[in-house]
Amino acid sequence: MNDNSKVLIGLLAGLAAGAALGLLFAPEKGSETRDKLGQSLKDFGDSIKDKAADEINNLNSLKDKVVSSIKSKLRDVEDEYSSEVENV
Q1: What does the pLDDT look like over 51-62, one tens digit per residue?
Q2: How far is Cα 48 from Cα 42, in angstroms, rounded to an integer?
Q3: Which run of H or of E encompasses 46?
């Protein structure tokens, strides 16, 4: 995980904690506060899922690039080897 991801996760966690504390100390009825807190936690969970999905997509993209590069290099070596065998 790179530094930007760590900073983003820390920021999201801080925002969620701040929102939760704000709701707990708000002058509203307990049921309303619990509803808001539940919604905030749901939103936080959704943002984590979205971030995880983005990271999975990034890893899949990287995997595809690596596999493509390896296949290309193998084809180059195979072509070079084939031409040397034909010349023998």
Answers
A1: 899 999 999 999
A2: 10
A3: helix 30-87
Contacts of 47 (CB under 8 A, 6+ apart): 12
Nearest to 40 by CA among 54, 21, 26, 58: 21
| Displacement of CA 31 from its chain's centroid (Å) | 34
Cα(63)–Cα(69) distance, rounded to whole angstroms? 10
Q: Above 70 in pLDDT, residue 79?
A: yes
- Are the beta carbons of 51 and 8 closer than 8 angstroms? yes
What kind and span of H or E run contains 70? helix 30-87
Residues 6+ apart with CB under 8 A from 9: 51
Q: What's the average model confidence in pLDDT over 12-16? A: 86
